[in-house]
Every structure is written in C-alpha cells, then in structure tokens.
Give the backbone structure.
Amino acid sequence: MQTIRVLVADDAAETRVNVRRLLQLMGGFEIVGEVSDGRAALERTLQLEPDCVLMDVNMPVMGGIAAAAELSSRAPHVAVVMMSVVDDREVLREAAAAGARDYLIKPFNAEDLVRAIRRAVRGNVNGKSASTIAVHACPLDPKNAVRLTH
C-alpha cells in the first residue's frame, strides 16, 4: 500500500500532536507538515502537495471551510477531511459545499481517522472529488454516520 502524505491543520497544538501520533502508530502515513491556521494550510498545501489535508473547521486567520473552498479550486487533487467539535448540519453542508471529502467529530479514534483519510484519498479521481461526503457524527457509534451529497 502506498504511503499517504498528510498535512495537519489545527489551531490546537495538542490535536496536531495527537493526530501525528495516531497516524504514525497506524502506519502507512507521512505527516508532511503541521499548521495552525487556514491561510497557512492553503499555502503549505500548495507548496507540499500532500494527498490529504486534515483540517479543523474553526481556525484563526482563515477558517477551515474557507481554506477547503480555496483548495478545491486551486488544488482539486488534494483530499480534504474536516474535523471539528461542532456537530451541526449547517457546518456539515458548508464543508461539503467547500469540497471536503469527510468530516470527523472530535474526539475520534485512530481507526475512524485512518478510514476517513483513506476514503477521502480514494474518492479523488482524476483530480476531482467524488460527489459525497461521509460524516461521522459520533465516531464511536457507527449508527450515527450519515452520507450527504453536494
């Protein structure tokens, strides 16, 4: 299996560290960078060209949804997985409209994180995203997962 290159964007240093540790533990992932705001996520993504950006919704300078929308037009080959403590359908719709491929509610476990990233990366075909976003409203309870189209 090919190593998936991931950029982690979250304003909470603890989240960035925990995500890095989880992905290193699971194997098959390379963390190519970590940033703390949406503008930096956009800039580093364009420089580093990761396979996936794991992006928090609420960040300073530029929010994750705005950054995802920019990436959708400027780097459509990069999969975006949004993560948030917010479990709100409107935020989900905004993320889907911005081009996010998956949405994880914090806290999430390693298996859900890995599945979301792999699914998002597989969903990008010929530099374009597939037409659905998977949402894990409560990663520890699979019956709460839903799929929306955008």
